[in-house]
Amino acid sequence: MRLLLVEDDAPLRERLRSGLRQAGFAVDVAADGFEAESCGVAEPYDAVVLDLGLPGKSGLEVLRGWRAEGNQVPVLVLTARDTWSERVDGLKAGADDYLGKPFHLEELVARLNALLRRSHPEAEASLAGQGLRLDEDRQVAVRADGQVVPLTGTEFRLLRYLMHHPGRVLSKSRLSEHVYELDEDRDSNVIEVYVNRLRQKLGKDLIRTRRGQGYVFGERD
Ligand code: CA
Questions:
Q1: Which of 6, 96, 154, 197 is the right S-S partner for 36, CB 3.0 to 4.6 Å?
Q2: Ligand 1: distance of its center to the CA of 212 in Å?
């Protein structure tokens, strides 16, 4: 899963970026409203963490602009402490959740994970159908008998994206867009290597190849 983190406070932005990466997300950053707006249009994010007080263009304006264009990416807004009116404005503008500053990183991660689950209700069932469970806190897969399957960072991001889109044909380029950050070298052929590693670890029928199209996760159609 790939996030856009919009925050103009540089030390906070770097702290959140590193924490979110550790929590298993690919993270792009934007430091002002204009940058945020164009990133949100150009890149297919799975969720956005949006500070409302931004230079250039406010977070509220950015969010309203995306929604007006039909961009339904899940958005969690960061608001100043004790400003209930900001929270209300954020929700009215189309935010899916909010968090007041200051907050603990653990709460941000938990809220993002919940937000992603809500926007993909089929995800839990898709892994359960394979006799597996994804432990997001430990970034491992767990078999029905309790056996833990360790995953590398890339394997975890790839598996999580696949399980959130069961039964859909996903091209290599789309998968690489959701597993890697903007400035990473995105060779979509590498996706093939990681798909094969997941098959080796979790079973060869977990991810099927659609020749010339991509991959399908989950039950046979
Ligand atoms: Ca700010």
A1: 6
A2: 45
